[in-house]
Write a structure and sequence with these properties.
about 260 residues, alpha/beta, binds flavin-adenine dinucleotide, two-stranded antiparallel ribbon
């Protein structure tokens, strides 16, 4: 049996270069350098580690504009087998609800899937909604915030990091798992694979292929609207010159106000 693994990947603006369109209040993606969402690199590495042990196919699914192709090629160059970019003008401006619906619908069009792996959250909108949303739309189980996953005997065993410990969860497939940022060390792309990936290319699926209605997706299918955004001006901290002689009195004041404690 060959295990079918789907990895959900989002291309995000480099967090150092985020530009907001002052009129639409949307991210101006054309003004920024785009990179693969870091937690999704961990999701792909988790899939590759399963594939190191059992026969598996890894399919990357991403909803995004045509430039997301570079991220798909990068994932193929790291070891994924197939890449499907879901791209159509109708998907633009989607909030997390139609994003989940669209990605779930693309995954349901694949012949078969056993494990879906997503990142815990994206570095641009950071809601963490999309993975769980996809599981709900597909009606499958989910294990979120995982630091480690393994597959054997038709079951996924996952370690979830909690505030006060680690929870070990076991679940039969099909299941969706979200991986924590930094949960593993993503392997490098190889030049050979990059050349092969560029030659092979990626599949691009549009609204018609998914069979969804235009009013269900993109901005039309989004129940949330960003009304207003505001830049916050950082207040400069007041600087107070201090003499060495004043320090004992300042320490005493902090002690009296219960800010400093003496053991
Ligand atoms: C109120 C609101 C309004 C918004 N309006 C707009 C808007 O008008 N225009 C706009 O461009 N954006 C908008 N966004 C951003 C948009 O909702 C998100 O970019 C998108 O829905 C994904 O959500 P997220 O980034 O929070 O992903 P998260 O839920 O944080 O991502 C978790 C994981 O899901 C997977 N994933 C996420 N997105 C994708 C994807 N596209 N394809 C494949 N896998 C994916 C990845 O594995 C990722 O690690 C809005 C967001 C909010 C909260």
């Amino acid at each position: 049996m060959v295990l079918e693994i789907v990895v959900m990947v989002k291309q995000v603006p480099d967090s150092q270069e985020v530009v907001i369109d002052p009129v639409t209040m949307n991210l101006n993606r054309s003004m920024t350098r785009n990179v693969t969402n870091r937690a999704d690199e961990n999701a792909l590495e988790a899939a590759l580690q399963i594939k190191d042990k059992v026969p598996a196919n890894i399919t990357i699914v991403s909803m995004g504009p045509p430039q997301a192709e570079t991220t798909m090629i990068e994932c193929l160059a790291r070891g994924a087998d197939r890449a499907v970019l879901v791209s159509d003008r109708a998907f633009g401006g989607a909030d997390t609800y139609p994003t989940g619906l669209t990605v779930a619908s693309a995954i349901s069009k694949l012949d078969h899937f056993d494990i879906i792996i997503a990142g815990e959250e994206s570095s641009d909108s950071s809601t963490g909604h999309v993975g769980p949303g996809v599981a709900e739309f597909l009606g499958i189980d989910q294990i979120t915030y995982c630091s480690k996953i393994e597959f054997s005997d038709g079951r996924v065993t996952a370690e979830r990091e909690l505030e006060d410990g680690t929870e070990v969860v076991q679940c039969p497939t099909p299941v969706l798992v979200t991986m924590l940022l930094g949960s593993n060390f993503p392997r490098m792309q190889t030049l050979r694979r990059k050349i092969d990936a560029t030659k092979k290319g990626i599949e691009v699926w549009n609204l018609e292929k998914l069979g969804l209605q235009p009013e269900w997706v993109g901005v039309r299918g989004s129940p949330t609207i960003v009304r207003r955004m505001q830049s916050i001006k950082e207040r400069e901290r007041a600087k107070k010159p201090v003499t060495l002689e004043a320090i004992p009195d300042m320490v005493k004041e902090l002690y009296e106000k219960n800010i400093l404690k003496v053991k």
